[in-house]
Amino acid sequence: RHPQMSAQGTTVHEMRAEALRAVLRVCGERTKQELLLPSRLPDPVWPFVVHVLSQRIGTPEQLDRVMSLLNLQVHRRSVADLSDDEARGRAFFAELFAPKPQQGTKDDAQDKVEADAIDQQEFFSLTLPFLQALALRMPDLFPDSVPLLLPGQQGGVTLTREQVACILAHSFFGTMLTTSEYCCAHFNAFTFQNLFSYNVPGAFSLFILNYFTRLAKRMPTGTVTYWRKSVPSNPELWQRSTQPLLTPRIEAKGSIERSETTLHADFANKYIGGGVLRGGCVQEEILFVIRPECLPALLLCAKMEDTESITIAGAEMFSAYRGYARGVRFAGDYCEPPERRLPCGSVVTQICAMDSTIAFLLPNRALQFRADLSLRDVHKAYVAFCPLPASDQKASLPPVATGNWGCGAFCCDKQLKFVQQWLAASQAGRELWYFTFGENIGPAAEFAKALLAAGTTVGALWGATCTVGEQLQAEAALQVKAVLHGPPGEPINFMELVLHQLGLQAVSPTPASATPPQL
Question: Are the CB atoms for 290 and 257 separated by under 8 Å?
Answer without folding.
Answer: yes
